[in-house]
Amino acid sequence: MSSDANPLLGSSYSSRLAHSSSSPDSNSDSAPSKSTLPGTSLKGFAMRELTAPVASVALAGSFGGATVEETAPAAHSDGLSTFVQRCQEQVRHTLADQVTPLRLAGHLAVLVVGATILILSQIQMPEWNFSLDALPNDALNGVTAVSLETVGEPQVIPVSEAMTDALQRSAVPFTVPQEKPRQEIEVYGVKSGDTVLGIAAQFGIQPETIMWANATLESNPDRLAVGDQLNILPVDGVLHEVKPGDTLSGLAAKYKVDVNNIIGYTANELADASAALTIGSKVVIPGGTKPFVTPEINTAVRQADAPTDAVKGSGSFSWPTSGNITQQFWGGHRAIDIGSWVGAPVKSADSGYVVLAGGGWNGGYGNHVIIDHGNGFATLYAHLNSIFVKPGESVSRGQQIGTVGNTGNSTGAHLHFEIRYQGSARNPYNWLP
Prior knowledge:
Strand content: 15-25%
Number of strands: 19
């Protein structure tokens, strides 16, 4: 065996081995090698000399028939265990730190932002080219337009030359044509539940226009019956039937309008102010008015004197029945109509005594009751279905005097309620709560 067969065995071992091999009479099985390096002492010497961090060393040789086998040193095993323990402690310390999750979240946020910027940088945005041609020529007075198409020096163009088209309204694909104003007089058949106010609202005109266009309503607009044929003017004004001696200038003065208003209405078919009028023909007077004539109020003859124990009213009235207002107080209707059902109770609006309680037509009132409240006020309840009081009877506020009906000149079940003061009809809304 050569002297450098195993350098791990140390210098003393090498010198002795070299000395032994230099002898001419020596051989691998000589006695000195056996006595000098017994198997047990060689193994102990090798354990002391080995310092390199190796996992396993096996030495095989003929040292007096002995075999040397080396294992990993204990120092290397202890160092590896210590390193692993330190790593475990560092991991536990890192995970136990409360700031670590925040740091991880911050890092993740930075990564997300970076990835987003990277993605957006790869997207090609469309180019938006706006033209000033859509603006009106006078929108930028004194301002010049700059052309950005050339790479070099920008070209300055006057606005008047740069813009050739003015701002135009976008075309609407679906247009609703405006209806041509109605010119002819329309005839309307009265239906159940109709009132002058309701009909006027339906055609968009004033109720006085309906009253002035129909002679039967002019004296008493309440005389409206189902089936009546009413003239409905296309505009607010007066419908005049020509009589002998009528002239355009005279009609204009009577209804307080200009002559041109009458001539300008196409349906009248009048050429000029000197045009002759045909007797019996009807002329529309746009914007014309008539002097107000107080409608006739059915003031029935007093049937009973005031009883000695009659209670005077307070002047404060309550609603006589429940329902909805179907016709309000206006110039042609000096009362309010309260729509309800047949048989609904009707009560006295204030204390007083019964002046009249009668049935029949009664000028269109039908079954009705009049109560004198002894303080200048009187109330009238018309179109009743039934009457529960008689003339001369005292009544108290809220006492039932009858039921709602549809008698007389009525287009449906309702109560015609009037408040009169000193014989003149007043607007009930001024006294009702």
